[in-house]
Design goal:
The chain is built from 4 helices and 13 strands. The protein is an alpha+beta fold. Strands 6-5-4-3-2-1-13-12-11-10-9-8-7 form a 13-stranded antiparallel beta sheet. The protein is globular.
């Protein structure tokens, strides 16, 4: 009888722990939302940003436009040349000098590892909590630069798990990291993913900007393997009209 009682107790404890872990991510999201701006976040329909991306002594100018939830256009300019990566909500493409080319969805997923504007402003599980489910989200504890953080891990696509390091003092993101996953069908892609994973991209938020009552990253330290740099946002605007043509080929 005692053995059976212990077994029942163990099962009950396991169920309690499982349920607690399943709901922890909601507590993280709710606390972060309150710190970022509360209900003001729900009113955001469009976002427009401009930033200077200084990396390895090279200046890259970036413009990002998003019509939430699915449309976006990221323009990257360097040495007089501009490349645009965009989605009209269905198709994803790259264009430059009057020519355009469709981008595979998996390739588009990996863009965020190099140019994370979508992660900051659009595909952010903290700003768009419907991205999170009990199946794809867990909360762990980890250290970064010697400091301990709660880390919300969200498998946001087939290939990427995003790590949101939460500052316990502010409930804001201290950094964004990534776990690179394997493709179930593409062995050639897996070789590329392994190289990316070795570099362990991480984006550390150094400064925040308040826009219409909502906090957004203003200055971000970039670390990709041995490469380091800084992305500084010079403009962030919300709910301004965006020319729909920018999302088309």
């Amino acid at each position: 009888m005692m053995k059976k009682f212990k077994m029942i107790l163990a099962i009950a404890m396991f169920a309690f722990i499982s349920n607690a872990n399943a709901t922890d991510y909601k507590d993280i999201i709710n606390a972060n939302k309150a710190a970022r701006g509360g209900k003001a976040i729900d009113n955001i329909k469009t976002i427009q940003t401009e930033s200077d991306f200084n990396i390895m002594g090279t200046l890259i100018l970036m413009k990002f436009n998003a019509d939430l939830p699915a449309k976006y256009a990221l323009e990257i300019s360097q040495m007089g040349q501009t490349v645009k990566f965009a989605s009209n909500g269905t198709d994803i493409f790259a264009s430059s000098a009057g020519q355009s080319q469709d981008i595979d969805a998996k390739e588009a997923e990996l863009m965020v590892l190099q140019f994370p504007d979508q992660l900051y402003f659009q595909k952010n599980a903290l700003l768009q909590p419907n991205i999170c489910t009990p199946e794809n989200s867990i909360v762990t504890v980890d250290t970064l630069d010697g400091k301990s953080y709660q880390v919300l891990k969200v498998k946001q696509s087939e290939l990427i798990e995003v790590l949101y390091y939460i500052d316990p003092a502010t409930n804001l993101e201290a950094a964004y990291g990534f776990n690179i996953l394997e493709s179930a069908t593409d062995s050639e892609l897996n070789q590329q993913l392994a190289q990316i994973g070795e570099n362990k991209p991480i984006y550390i938020v150094k400064e925040w900007m308040n826009v219409e009552g909502v906090k957004f990253p203003k200055t971000v330290e970039v670390k990709i393997g041995e490469i380091s740099g800084t992305q500084s946002f010079t403009k962030i605007e919300v709910n301004k009209k965006i020319d729909a043509a920018i999302f088309n080929k």
